[in-house]
Amino acid sequence: MTASARRRSPSAPLAPGRALPAAVALLLSALGLMLAIFVIAGLLSIRKCDAQSACLSYGAGPIESNHFQGEFGRSSRTRLNGAFDQWYAYPISVRAYAVSSVAGEQAGERGVKVADGQQSRDVIPSIPATTKDRINVDWQLTAYFKLNTNLLRRFHEEIGLRFKAYEDRGWDLMLRQTLRKQLETSLASVTRRYNVADVWGDEPTLRAVERAVGSTLREQVNRALGGGYFCGPRFQAAARLCPDLEVRIKKPGIPRPVQVAFEQNRTSQILIATKQNEIKQRANEAQAIRRLRGQLTPQYVLLRAIENNKIDFWVLPNNANVTLPTRQTGG
């Protein structure tokens, strides 16, 4: 057999124990790594909305343009969103925005239920607003609302992306720069209708201020944002109605001199009322005495006079001549 015949054919199998060429081994390793990356990316791309959220999916792959893929609620199934696709979640439950000196102080007051972690508190402790009689009042309050999920995609593309409102920090920033400014405007327009004494001492008036601010706030914030994105806590997506926001106000903070004057005036009113009650009681007593005197018999009047030593009473025998002394009057 010649040397050329003994040389192995290129298509002949490798002998046992012989290694693959370096290029083939490198190619197989790269393919395996890519497969592992795609598997891990696929597992990480499994998405599902929780019970308190509504979610949006946008395609953003390396060979496709950004485009809207769909909206998913809490009843939707788990889905594979894609390795490069974007997933955004927004709250659908009742949210609270508080301007208060104490964190969480007003969440859940008077029938409005807010879950833990769903209250945003502003960095300012109060909002100043002037009353009809030009008294500066500090207001601490909480606004309760829901996001209008019927306009969720539009809200995300026009507002959410700008503030990154799908993240907690971005959500709070969005509220401070939109809801708070309109809250200040709403308070200013409503409180100038009332005197400070009305909002300070009259509970029904304070509730009327709450309702007026909630209604004005919904109109102004949605007008400023360019859509009806914020509704009241009673909002239901199926109803297609956007009720007013609900506002809860603490007792207004008025200047100390004004408060002292109110307290003094209240004390004075109490004293006047007490004196009037005393006078009325004495008048009733005098009237009762007069009525009683009108009902007395002559015999009872004579008996009371004898008891009070106003009449001398003598017991005399029959057929006896007796001389009675008379009382001497000073003269």
Summarize the structure in words.
- The chain has 331 residues and is of the alpha+beta class.
- It folds into 3 domains: 44-92, no CATH class; 93-254, Band 7 domain (Tetrahydropterin Synthase, Chain A, 2-Layer Sandwich); 262-292.
- Helix content is 43%, strand content 16%.
- It has 8 helices and 12 strands.
- The chain has helices at 3-6, 22-44, 152-163, 168-191, 196-201, 203-225, 256-294, 298-307, and strands at 46-47, 53-59, 67-72, 79-80, 86-91, 95-99, 119-121, 127-130, 136-139, 141-147, 230-231, 246-249.
- Strands 6, 7, 10, 11 and 12 form a 5-stranded mixed β-sheet that branches. A 3-stranded antiparallel β-sheet has the order 3-2-5, with no helix packed on it.
- Strand 2 and strand 3 form a beta hairpin.
- Helix 4 packs across helix 6 (203-225).
Using brief descriptors, characterize the structure shown.
single chain; 331 residues; alpha+beta; Tetrahydropterin Synthase, Chain A; 3 domains; three-stranded antiparallel sheet; 43% helix; disordered N terminus
| CATH fold descriptor of the largest domain | Tetrahydropterin Synthase, Chain A
Radius of gyration, in angstroms, nearest whole number: 44 Å
How many DSSP-defined strands?
12
What level of helicity do the residues show? 40-55%
Low-confidence runs of at least 5 consecutive residues: 3-9, 104-112
> What is the ordering of alpha helices and beta strands?
HHEEEEEEEEEEHHHHEEHH
The general outline is rod-shaped
Number of helices: 8
The chain-level structural class is: alpha+beta
Number of domains: 3
